[in-house]
Amino acid sequence: MSLRVLIVDDEDIARRRLERMLAGMPEVEVVGTASDGVQARDAALDLAPDLVLLDIDMPECDGLTLAATTALPAVIFVTAHREHAIEAFEVDAVDYLLKPVTRARLVQALDKVRARKADAAPDVTEVVREALADGRRPPRLSARCGDVLHVFDAREVQRLCARDKVTLLWRDGTEYVLDESLNELERRLEAWDFIRVHRSELVNLGAVVSVHLGGGESSVLLRDGSQVPVSRRALPLLKKRLR
Asked: Domains plus CATH for the chain?
């Protein structure tokens, strides 16, 4: 399986070394290079590579920030710093290579990318989700406010959350209480683009305006102005679903 590769590193020597190593490998084409995160973002858009070999410590925009905020293809981090490995895999990196990279280790990483591409046939979960959504009426949610039971089209609900052992939703500034648990709602609404972003938060992807990263804590901004926390575990899946 052929791979079109973009090399991103602020050190010219490092870029040239990776180019030389890749030049001797079958079915690998280096389609471009970049020396900082801004150039890399533009190159990824213009060149449409299959893989980005990405340094972390760079000017303008570091590699981790670039991977977290940009819809990149497969990413292999190539860095001199051991301490960022956990963060790298949280942004769905395929592999994490320490400089100086050996040819054998690079070949191993490229094989991982090929394996991931081979598995990139339509996601069965996604296919099932779409089939369910196409074949069923939109789900309704029954929620209480005082002595009145209200019925909502789930597609119009932006957020459901668990608070003090009850499940809540808000509409137009009013709080409503549901009898279903957040786990039950997650299973029932998965086919309608709801995703668990935190142990106590379920959001409608269609209501997401932006994803805020940094400071060790992430969040999403919804159309109604709500800022909802996103757990470190949920962040990679959220970004994948939004793409």
From this structure: 3-118 (3.40.50.2300), 125-242 (2.40.50.1020)
